[in-house]
Structures are given as C-alpha cells and as structure tokens.
Amino acid sequence: MLQGLRVAPSAPPPIVPRTVSTDMPASPATLVTPSCPDLHRWLFGGALAHPSGAIAGWREAETGRLSDEYPEISGYFLSAAVFADATSSPVVAGAAEWLTERIEANEIASRRADGPAIYNFDQGIIAAGLLKYGIRTGHARTMTAGVRAAASLRDQIQRHGHLPTLDPTGGQPQGRPATWSTVGRLHLAKTVQCLLLAAELGEGGMRDAARMLIADTRARFSLGSESFREANGETNLHSTCYALEGFWIWNAANAEDDRDELLEATMDELIAKRLPSGGFPRNASLPGEQSDVTSQVARLALLLAREEAARPTIARLRAVAIPTERGYAMPYQPEASELHQNAWVTMFAAQSLALADGVRGLEWWELI
Length: 368
What we know:
The protein is mainly α. It has helices at residues 3-6, 36-43, 71-84, 90-104, 120-137, 140-160, 192-200, 206-220, 237-253, 261-271, 291-303, 307-320, 343-356, and strands at residues 58-60, 322-323, 328-331, 340-342.
C-alpha cells in the first residue's frame, strides 16, 4: 500500500475514491496563481527554518521574526516535503535530523511554553512526518524515531482503551485553560495516520490501536461536543476538521467506498458556516476568518467530491495569499492588522490548491 511513498512518483498518483476527478491534468503553465507550486516555493525556501533545523509555526510578514521552534509543525513540514517531492532540500533534512535527535534523547515535550507537557496529537503528527520522510529517503534512524513516537500512542490506547489528550508521563501544560487542545479527544482521530503507517511497516498492535482510536472517536463525535470547545465555550472548527480528516484517512486506507454518513453530514454543517468572503471562521458562531479552517474545509470538500462547495473557498485562498520574494505564503487570519505568514496553513492550502487544479490526488498517507 505504500509503493508511492517508497519512491517519489514520476507522475502524479491516481486520484483516489472520493476525490474530485479531472479528465486532463492541468499543466503548470496554465495554473491559476497562486498554485500549489507557488506555496511550496515559500515553504521550502528556508524562510521558516531555525538554525537548529526546527521549523517555526509562523513568520511575521513585517519583521521576518520567527515563532518558537515547533516540533509538531516540523513534523507537518516533513509530510509536506514528501508530498512536494522536496525531501532533498537541506531545510527538510535539517528538520528531520532535529526531530530524530529529540526523540533519541527522549526530549519530547511539545512546546517550550507548556513545560514538560506532551500533547499526543503533536506526537502523532511528528511520528507521521518522520515515518514518511524515513520511508521515502531510506533513512533508518528517522524511521526508527517515527516508529518509537507511534508506539507511544499505541501503548496508551492499549492501556486506556482510548488515546488521552496528554501523555501522562509529561504532566499538565502550565497555565493553559481547559480547551479542545488540553482536554479534548476527538481531534486525536487524525493521529490514526501514524498508526497505519507503522502497521504497514509490520509493527505489532498498530492496526488494532488505529481501529480502537477511530471507533472511540466515532462513538463520541458530534459538532457540539465539549471536546471541541474553546475557553469561551465556542466550538473550534479547526479541531473539528482534524477529526474529520482522521475519518477520511481511515476510510481511504481501508478502501471503504460506502458513503460515510457521519463525515458527510458534518461536512454539510461545516459548509453552512462559510462566511460571505468564502472563508471560514475559527469558531462556529463568531465572526473572524481563520485560514487553517478555510484550507481544511476546502480540502475535505474536494476529497468528498464537493467541487461546487469548494469553489468559493478555493477562490478565497488564492485571494488572501501573501506574495513573497520566493513564492506565496498563507496568512493565519487574513483580516488581522499584523499578518503572520503561517506554516501549517500554507501546507494545508497547497494540498487544497493541488486538488482544485486537478494536478494531484491524495493517498491516505499523503494528507498533511
């Protein structure tokens, strides 16, 4: 199942079921600007890299100042590099080495600001990135580190019957309120990708853990769940999309072609929250556009063959993209007075644009 991951494809992979189809892939010369390659030029041009090799979550557009070293986003960065066939880039190799060394040294705290806390979501994203990069490049140390991170999630699922939000060995984050990221569990469905990748490598117990994770999430899922709540009581749509992405990964990996009623019905609810601009808000019932949600909803809509629903949202992504000296970056909040060029938004948006332009499909292991 990982043939396309083991060797970089010389041509785009076939479009998988539930992906919007196209008769004739567009050539780069005919793509609307900005396109997926325009975003990749910024991502892999070095603007996000710390001297350590770590990748920042964002860059201030005005000053160029980077956010702190971000392990989770460094994991996403490796996944994005595999999707872009950019694993030979020095900044990608630097991020892989930084993450690998951290895991080898058991330095797995998620964020400097949160002390020793270990977010299991972050560990899942790191594991997936390391495994994809290791498989693609044949880098054994990176694969071993990825398996180790995935094994931590497997062991917790086996121990508790579900995946906790935080690894108990790390303690609680310092000074954080109870929100979706600190106490919620439903968004953790997206970590199913790393478990399935490790299962494909022959690691024991991974597929059963993946099945338990998805079953637990589906049994508890609703858009109004407390598991998606912000500190202000509002539903966070970014985390909601994470859960739906987990469902899509599981369905695609298992070639389940039957209509997923839970996924489709929730997409109906999400699409109904689109703003007049074509973008999507951070919270379900408050204004305030946030581009990670916009990118995620567009990508899911296209994966579910909802091309018409995705069209205004794709147009919005192109409209708010920030031109730079090398490619385009995506803003976190396009209406903010100070723009941040955001790493993960740009990664998600690049896949959305690739799908919209008909030049790429997505395999289950490719979704960032």
